[in-house]
Amino acid sequence: MMIPASLHRLGDRTLLITWNDGRRSQYDVRDLRLACPCAACVNEWTGERTLRPIQVPETIRPVRIFSVGRYAMGVHWNDGHSTGIFGYDYLRRLDESSNSGVAAAPDAVKP
Amino acid sequence: MSASVTTEHVLNALRHVQDPDLHRDIVALGFVKNLAIDGGAVRFDVELTTPACPAKEDLKRQCVHMVSALPGVTSVEVTMTAQPPRNAAGGARTALLKDVRHIVAVASGKGGVGKSTATANLAIALANTGAKVGVLDADIYGPSMSLMFGIIKAPEINADKKLVPVTSRSLKVVSMAMFDEGEKGVVWRGPMVAQMIQNFVHNVVWGELDYLLIDMPPGTGDVQLTLTQNAPLSGAVIITTPQDVSVLDAKKGLRMFQSVNVPVLGIVENMSYFVCDGCDKKHYIFRRGGGRRVAESLGVPFLGEVPLEPEVAEGGDAGTPIVERRPGSPAATAYKALAGAVASSLSILGAAQAGLMESFDLQWEEVPEP
Fold first, then answer.
1. pLDDT attached to residue B154
2. Residue A1 is nearest to which of B92, B230, B261, comparing CB atoms?
3. B369, A10: Cβ pair inside 8 Å?
4. What is the pLDDT of residue B158?
5. Which residues in chain B land under pLDDT 70?
6. Measured by CB atoms within 10 angstroms of the end CB, which terminus of chain B is less buried, N or C?
7. pLDDT higher than threshold 50 for residue A105
8. Which residues of chain A have a CB within 8 Å of the CB of B228?
9. Do the chains contact at A69 and B370, CB–CB below 8 Å?
10. Where residue A66 sits, what CATH number does that domain have?
């Protein structure tokens, strides 16, 4: 059962999640917006991503992040988008596939 | 001259008393409070994680035993109290649920397995241990909690336009049945149901509760999803009957909770057997052991068997659940054991998950930098 143990912001566009198993995952907020799994960004039937990178400016930022039940994080964005629910499993898969995760060593991330 | 008793002596003695669930001594756990020594008279509180702790009496006896064995002690007075760990899960926006410590869904895959009966009896069994208990009947299409508890009142709306639950015994209850005038039934499409559920979660003044039990409708649909997203569930209890058709659906319900990270506290097998009043033989009417098998195959605890007793149904229909109507009956005994198991697994989960970000709601600027 994946649950964040802590959440941090690195600068103004990177989210750092430390998971309950110790792994640390970093997300560039624009990459996260582009990976939004909601039905407005992904075709529900074909799975094809309908959101294009050109639609998301470099200035994209979360306005608010919040837990959804026990299994996901919701994000409201400064472009008005608010329907994305990022399941913790999905966030882990994003991190593991992009390999941007940092090993669990305590000093692996320099504040 | 008698030896003088010190705080240290008493605490050292109490270090030999272990919480059986958390596997640590009660001093290390910080359970010992308000220790007062007056000559040979020793007084202290033991603050457990839940008023429903099944080991309460046993712990008290051990405390008295350990301390009264100390030289110089003439009397020992132990008060057992409880301060359950706060429910930290999900939805920080649910302000009215902030004083609810644990929200537990009582669910099944299939209908007709006795979910509502189990919810009602579990609620009374927990309340009888001194816990503050609420019951939310989320079965919009087939609400039954009013009948089970014999409630005929409707909830009031307070000055803030929030719903005040109906109090029955010491329980706070909200059910769709309370809004169903003249038994017309609820004929609604999904979005209306989802909205009503959100109302029940966000607009009911539950106040301070140790446990809020949610009687779920059968299946894995709209209501279940809305609740898992809106109510910060601490865990779920799955009810099944022994036969395969029910067990199969119970598995689906269980997987649904697992997929949304809600811990499954365990499986209860209802209507396990019927005890013949002529021969006292247990008759396994709906086959045997289905609940235990599914619990084992999915790696979740098996919380027990509840026998089929006509009086369970009579009690439900009369508004006096069996735990209250005939506390010594086999079914009531099974429900009381279930209450103890639920309470202790919630404390264990609470201790294991302390310090995790189960619930957050932050503006981006508020997210701390390391």
1. 82
2. B261
3. yes
4. 86
5. 1-3, 83-95, 181-184
6. N
7. no
8. 69-71
9. no
10. 3.30.2020.30
For chains A and B, CB pairs below 8 A equal 95
**Cβ-proximal residues to B204 (8 Å cutoff; 6+ apart), any chain:** B96, B136, B155, B162, B163, B164, B165, B174
B43's CB contacts (< 8 A; 6+ apart) are: B34, B35, B36, B37, B76, B77, B78, B79
Q: What is the pLDDT of residue B165?
A: 92
Per-residue pLDDT tens over the stretch B40-97? 999 999 988 777 777 888 999 999 999 999 999 999 999 988 765 444 443 444 567 7
Of B214, B237, B262, B247, nearest to B341 (Cα)? B237
Tell me the three state secondary structure of residue B67: helix
Nearest CA in chain B to A74: B361
Interface of A with B in 7-26 (CB under 8 A): 7-10, 15-16, 20
To the nearest whole Å, the CA of B262 is away from the closest chain A CA by 6
Residues B242, B113 contacting (CB under 8 angstroms): no
Residue A78 within any structural domain of the chain:
yes
Could you tell me if B11 and B44 are in contact, meaning their C-beta atoms sit under 8 angstroms apart?
no
Question: Cβ separation of B360 and A7 shorter than 8 Å?
Answer: yes
Angstrom CA distances, B16 to B46, B65, B69, B81, B351, stand at 14, 11, 12, 19, 20
Record the pTM: 0.73
What is the ipTM, given to two decimal places?
A: 0.84
pLDDT tens for A38-91 read 888 998 888 899 999 999 999 999 999 998 888 899 999 999 998 899 999 999
Write down the pLDDT at residue B236. 92
A68 in contact with B, Cβ within 8 Å = yes
Total domains in chain A come to: 1
Residue type, B64: V
**Which of the two residues, A83 and A103, has the higher pLDDT score?**
A83
In a domain, A53, yes or no: yes
Q: Is A108 part of a structural domain of the chain?
A: no
Contact: B364, A7; criterion CB under 8 Å: no
Which residues on B lie below 8 Å from A70 (Cβ)? Answer: 89-90, 228, 232-233, 260-262, 358
Residue A66 lies in a domain: yes
Per the structure, the complete domain to which residue A46 belongs is given by 29-98
Give B200 or A93, the one with higher predicted confidence: A93
Radius of gyration of chain B (CA): 22
Residue of B nearest to A109 (CA): B370
- What domains, with CATH codes, occur in chain B? 9-82 (3.30.300.130), 95-352 (3.40.50.300)
